[in-house]
Design brief:
Blueprint: E1 2-5, E2 17-21, E3 24-28, H1 37-45, E4 56-58, H2 64-67, H3 70-75, E5 82-84, H4 86-112, H5 125-129, E6 135-137, E7 144-147, E8 150-156, E9 164-172, E10 175-181, E11 205-209, H6 220-236, E12 240-244, H7 250-263, E13 272-275, H8 277-287, H9 298-302, E14 312-315, H10 318-323, E15 331-335, H11 345-352, E16 359-362, H12 371-376, E17 381-384, E18 387-390, E19 394-397, H13 407-416, E20 423-427, H14 431-444, E21 448-450, E22 457-459
Parallel strand pairs: 3-4, 4-5, 5-6, 10-11, 11-20, 12-15, 12-16, 13-14, 13-15, 16-19, 20-21
Antiparallel strand pairs: 1-2, 1-22, 2-3, 7-8, 8-9, 9-10, 17-18
Helix pairs in contact: 4-8, 13-14
The structure holds zinc ion.
Residues 61, 63, 66, 159, 184 line the site of zinc ion.
Length: 460
């Protein structure tokens, strides 16, 4: 058996790992590289594998950095099955075409500047819309033989709707071995979705994410208290709150939290705009998957529709979105993208960060070199749509809504496996986090831990 990491190796995005089991070749995730534009573009343009001899793809969850190269894979001739959970398939049906649309825009933009070295977009919205045709949905805890001698079981990763950890039971030369790929591990107590469920049973090999292996977040309860505090404070001074949020999961969690706050009378009656067609579509997908909701939560049990209440307004059209720029008085605007690199949040920020009454509220992971990260670092001036814009607005971070387990939760997850893995690989982190995760695993007693580089093969 051999493992080669072709993405999320030494960095967070582009998750893609190749498992070669005898003659069988299985891909774990097929994500897009994001972040520094030119570098990401170059990496996405050159697909490192021969697509023809892949037998199957297993997707952990719907985030684009885990699925965003699937349309390319199909375009390059992959016709095999793509396994995922039912909610992941439905989310991918709205997220991948959106990613295709961004690719088309990117292609157009580069073309105008004469900087295009591709003859066509990486893939189009249409290419992306065809991917779900190859997706085979497999619910949690339902083992399935996906190729001879390889059995796949998903467990709930608690990171986003439909997110999963991947368990592969492999028969090789009479011996059975278990490979566990954590996917992105969520947090205990996150709104709407259930808690992470580490796969039970001893793993021979563990491939584990490391996004926040060197950090401790506040708890979700503390995050809720912070959100209540910020909403009330900014509303009082007449400001607006701009929340760059991933259209999927983070946006729904915020709507859910604000719904709870409004219901309990914990916030003033100010309008909440969800300004993202993708978030609106994704919210509809959430409504289709109550099977993935956490029934231990009061709002889940007591309301018919988690995402509809009097203060919230869903904005689809560009005109309505632009009209929000002349809105007066306090309001909350939730818009994508989550790292403020693209999407409608950009025009809201350009319009609003000059006003000291306003607040930019960061609620998700910000990769280096993104606008969200620069604002978080306290930049006094940032470039938006080519213009330098002074930043006088308050910028605050609530880490507790992160979809990613922190150091303590990663440890809790590993300890939740019935036995320590014999061997582990740390992926999905920058160098510091990967080393922190490796250290954490060694401290727990894992004998052999590696931090793979891109394309480095490991015999298992
Ligand atoms: Zn993710």
């Amino acid at each position: 058996m051999r493992l080669t990491c072709w993405g999320a190796a030494g960095e967070v995005t582009g998750s893609m790992h190749l498992l070669e089991i005898g003659p069988k070749r299985i891909l774990l995730d097929c994500g897009l590289f994001q972040g520094r534009r030119e570098e990401a573009r170059n990496k996405n343009e050159t697909f490192p594998l021969a697509v023809g001899d892949l037998d199957a793809v297993i997707v952990s969850h719907a985030h684009i950095d885990h699925t965003g190269r699937l349309p390319l894979l199909r375009k390059l001739g992959f016709t095999g099955p793509i396994f995922c959970t039912p909610a992941t398939r439905d989310l991918a049906s709205v997220m991948l075409p959106d990613s295709g649309f961004i690719q088309e825009k990117d292609f157009e933009f580069l073309g105008k500047r004469g900087q295009n070295h591709l003859a066509e977009p990486l893939y189009t919205a249409h290419d992306a819309a065809l991917v779900p045709d190859q997706m085979v949905s497999l619910p949690y805890e339902r083992p399935l033989d996906i190729v001879p001698g390889v059995r796949l079981t998903y467990t709930d990763a608690g990171h986003m709707l439909g997110s999963a950890s991947v368990v592969l039971d492999v028969d090789t030369a009479g011996a059975r071995r278990r490979i566990v790929f954590s996917g992105d591990i969520g947090r205990w107590g996150l709104p709407i979705i259930r808690d992470p469920k580490p796969p039970k049973g001893p793993a021979d090999v563990l491939i584990i994410e490391s996004t926040y292996a060197n950090k401790v977040h506040e708890s979700v309860i503390e995050a809720q208290a912070l959100l209540v505090g910020y909403v009330n404070k900014v509303a009082k001074r007449g400001g607006k709150i701009f929340i760059p949020a991933f259209a999927i999961e983070r946006a729904q969690e915020l709507i859910y939290e604000l719904h709870g706050m409004a219901r309990d009378g914990a916030m003033p009656k100010i309008p909440i705009y969800v300004d993202s067609p993708l978030a609106v579509n994704a919210t509809d997908v959430f409504r289709l998957h109550p099977e993935a909701f956490d029934l231990s939560e009061r709002l889940v049990r007591e309301t018919d529709d988690l995402f509809r209440f009097p203060l919230v307004k869903y904005v689809r059209s560009v005109e309505e979105s632009k009209a929000l720029n002349s809105l007066r008085g306090p309001a909350i605007i939730i818009a994508a993208s989550g790292m403020a690199e693209s999407g409608r949040i950009l025009h809201h920020l350009r319009n609003g960060i000059g006003d000291h009454r306003n607040l930019v509220l960061i609620v998700g992971f910000q990769a280096s070199y993104t606008l969200g990260h620069r604002l978080q670092e306290g930049a006094k001036e940032v470039r938006i749509y080519g213009d330098m814009v002074p930043c006088r607005a308050e910028v605050a971070t609530i880490g507790g809504y992160s979809g990613h387990a922190d150091r303590n939760e990663l440890r809790q997850w590993v300890q939740g496996l019935a036995a320590l893995p014999k061997r582990a690989f740390t992926v999905h982190g920058e160098t510091e986090q990967l080393q922190a995760m490796a250290g954490l695993l060694r401290d727990l007693g894992v004998k052999q831990v590696d931090v793979p580089s891109l394309g480095e093969p490991f015999e298992l």
